[in-house]
Amino acid sequence: MGKVTGFLEIDRQVHKYQPASDRIRHFREFTLPMSDKEVEKQAARCMDCGIPYCHGPTGCPIHNQIPDWNDLVYNGDWDGAIRNLHSTNNFPEFTGRICPAPCEEACTLNLEDIPVAIKTVEQAIADKAYETGHIRPYPPERKTGKRVAIIGSGPAGMAAAQQLGRAGHDVHVYERESRPGGLMRYGIPDFKIEKHYIDRRIEQMQGEGVTFHCGVNVGIDKKVSELLAEHDAVLYCGGSETPRPANIPGDDLSGVYDAMPYLVQQNRRVGGEPIQSVAWPSHPIIASGQHVVVVGGGDTASDCIGTAFRQGAVRVTQLDIRPQPPEKEDKLAVWPYWATKMRTSSSQAEGAEREFQVATLEFIGEDGQLTGVRCCEVDEKRKPIAGTEFVIRADLAFIAIGFAGPAAESVMKELDGEIKVVTDSRRSKNVEANDRDYRTSVDRLYAAGDVRRGQSLVVWAIREGRQAARSIDEALMGSTVLPR
Hints:
Blueprint: H1 6-9, E1 16-17, H2 20-23, E2 31-32, H3 36-43, H4 66-74, H5 78-86, H6 92-98, H7 102-106, H8 118-131, E3 147-151, H9 155-166, E4 170-175, H10 183-186, H11 196-207, E5 211-214, H12 224-230, E6 233-236, E7 256-258, H13 259-270, E8 291-295, H14 299-311, E9 315-320, H15 331-334, E10 353-356, E11 358-366, E12 369-377, E13 390-393, E14 396-399, H16 411-419, E15 445-447, H17 450-453, H18 458-477
Parallel strand pairs: 3-4, 3-6, 4-5, 6-15, 7-14, 8-9, 8-14, 9-10
Antiparallel strand pairs: 1-2, 11-12, 12-13
Helix pairs in contact: 3-4, 3-8, 4-5, 5-8, 6-8, 9-18, 13-14
């Protein structure tokens, strides 16, 4: 694959970033694209490693045939590369931007900390395909006469809709917000993925016969029971939206918010929409001139950090209860799996102060307004260490510690009540469905994505949407040619 000796001759290179001082002045993407020749050189580094863990279960959840399209790019066959990439991934321009790239962790060259720049090559293939007109509507040759409803237009719902539409079914996607995309549009900031990439895919899917119904809150504006009566199958892709409860004293103070209302507001501002969301109502939240504290150590916390800096925050501090991880992992102990090691996101690199192995004890304030966060150091069992308490000044605090399952209102309220769908045994109450056929306990009702598996990555949502589409097509037609 690639050039036989490429990994010996060519250094690893990835997209460069605009300087932090420049990129915090806007909400656009800030990666600097590489030339085609530079990308081809990076693809040439893909070695003939025998067992390519990058596209196995340890690397890519959707089994992208990474060595194959690296070889095609190296040989200048960009059209062949996008055809190969699309055979497993409907939206490589999404994953090429926002996937954390477990494939690179699983790369054989990562044993030497110089993995192939897979994510960079993937994004370049997708962007090149738009330039050359390869990404256009591919409507089905025939219609099946079957109708399928999809609840939710995030990556799982979008992937399923495109697959089912191309199979010839009449697909209707119901989205409660004013535009499709789910939390990929409203939760992930524009500086990580600009939303015109989503718009272009929606336009393509509409050209393939998929119908989007925005501003329809299923379970309230339209019942799930109505969708089941009007369609041959219904797929629920509602995502994981209930914030995990922090149970921190003082979280009712003005200035303390869950992360998602804050991120959704800013995405709506950038998109030219009113800031009020159906699911995340809140008064305006702006970090300009504020001291900000972010509780949590994951991607959502990083998104809050980057957003706060772009709004003009004076200082941003991130609190992580986990111990500071090592700078380098033990390769022989963890490779090819995702390693716990010190990672710095682009947002954290913009100036965040990071506190590790610290617990948030209390939000403190005066006259109902947040003024600080009381913290302490913790031991390896996350128990407070006496005498280590300290207070961080805070005008705004965002809680970003993850999600505990689907939204309890609207769809789940009806599924729990009248329809009585079976949920899993965890407190999150995800919809129970296996990962083979994605059927729920209710006839003709399927579930995929975070609403089934819990909060996860966009790449996992795309995988589940594709696999659920195959299951639905097979159930409706008796057989299917859709890939699993």
